[in-house]
Design a protein that fits this description.
- The chain has helices at about 1-20, 175-180, and strands at about 25-35, 45-55, 60-80, 80-100, 105-125, 135-150, 150-160, 185-195.
- The protein has about 200 residues and is mainly β.
- β4 (about 80-100) and β5 (about 105-125) form a beta hairpin.
- The longest helix is centred in the first third of the chain and has 19 residues, at about 1-20.
- The mean pLDDT is about 85.
Length: about 200
Amino acid sequence: MKRLKTVVLLCATILLSAVQLNAQKYGVLAGATFSNMRGIENSSKTGWNVGGTVQFKLPFGFSVQPSLIYNAKAAQVGLDAGSADLTVGYLELPVSFQWGPDLLLFRPFLDASPYVGYALTSKFLPEWNTSNLEKLEYGLALGGGIELWRMQLTCRYCWSFGSLIGAEIPDDLAEIKGRFGNNNFGGVTLSLSFLFGK
């Protein structure tokens, strides 16, 4: 619980600091998360993401756009007794580095977004509990998008690094650890932002 409070406080501090540093734009975003478990076939499931964002314009078409989002990632995991859906809800802080020319009516851009997150919720099997999960996640997303008026549509492919399963796991969940191995979530996020400001 102490780690969770620290992560939430850090994320809130970063976003509030960004607003105080005169971000040119700020806004809200929402979208779909089409995630899967790398290394597991037919594991794709659809989740969702929602949050807030701030944008800093830089010279030569560059911009930096940190966000604070809740991202629900899901995957279908095949087990000996059938299959089960895994859903994990993360509080994430992606920092988007964008480049694209301003074409007056719209701005297409390329995007690279390292991110860090903390698992707030998880749902899997009845015997599963949050202590089986590695709470902290980190990764990289690459993609692109288009900004038109006050709207920004962004599509990214995300790689979460590290293992999803914690080091300590009960013997009765050994099959699950074997299925996951050192895998973690991957997949596509599609987000629509509405921006306010200058």
